[in-house]
Amino acid sequence: MLPVRAASVPALPLIDDTNSSPSPVRTASLFEVARPSLTGFIKPATDVDTGFPEIGEPVGLTRPRARPDPVTLSPAPATAVGSGPARIVIHYNSVNSGRLRADGLAQQLSATGIGSVELRSVGFEISRDNIRFFFPADSSVARRVGGVMTNSGATIRDFSTFRPSPRRGTIEIWLAS
Predict the structure, then answer these.
(1) Which of 22, 38, 80, 125 is 20 to 30 A away from residue 101, measured at CA?
(2) Per-residue pLDDT tens digits for 71-86
(3) pLDDT tens for residues 53-110?
(4) Are 75 and 165 in contact (CB under 8 A)?
(5) DSSP state, 42?
(6) What Cα–Cα distance (Å) separates residue 62 from each residue in 54, 59, 66, 67, 169?
C-alpha cells in the first residue's frame, strides 16, 4: 500500500449563485474543487417517450379489451328433393374400363335433372356399387339415384357420421370395376 500525503491546495474563489446577497466570493474546500456539481449543465430529457412509466408513477393493471362475441354460423339448409340440385360425384376405377360405365351413368343422371354430375377416377379396385349420402336430408336424393341404377344392385349407405363431411347435397357413387 502506498502512503498518501495530504496535499495542500490553495483556496480557489467560487461564485455562489444560491445567495442573492452581494457577497461575490467565498472559499471552496478541496472536496468541492475535486468534484464539481454538474447541476445546470445536464438537464433530464422530459419529452422522450420511452414507453416505461415515470419513476414513482403508479403502475396499474390494464383490463384486457373485451373480446367480440363468437360468431355463430347457422347450418346451411339441407338439400332435399325439389329444394335444389344435388352434387353427384361418380368414382370409377381408371385401370379397368370403368370410364365407359361412368360416362353412361352420368348421361342417365343428367337426363333426370337430379343434379350436377362429376367424374373422378381412382387407382384401385372397387368391389361393389355403393351410393353414399352424408346428411340425413340427402337420403331421398340418394334413393332417387339408386332408382336410376336399378340393374346394378347398388347399396345405399348412410355416411352421416363420416368426418369431415362434404358439403350438403353431395351424393357419391362408387362404381364396381
Answers:
(1) 80
(2) 333 333 334 444 568 9
(3) 556 555 555 555 554 444 333 333 334 444 568 999 999 998 777 899 999 999 999 9
(4) no
(5) B
(6) 17, 9, 12, 15, 50
| Grid coordinates of 124 | 384401385
Position 171, amino acid: I
Give pTM, 2 decimals: 0.53
Angle, CA 143 vertex, CA 97 and CA 74 arms, to 5°:
110
Nearest to 173 by CA among 86, 90, 109: 90
How does DSSP classify residue 123? Answer: S
List Cβ neighbours of 63 (8 Å cut-off, separation of 6 or more).
none
The residue type found at 81 is: V
Work out whether strand 130-133 and strand 155-158 pair parallel, antiparallel, or are unpaired.
Answer: parallel
Take residue 5 and report the three cell numbers written for it.
500525503
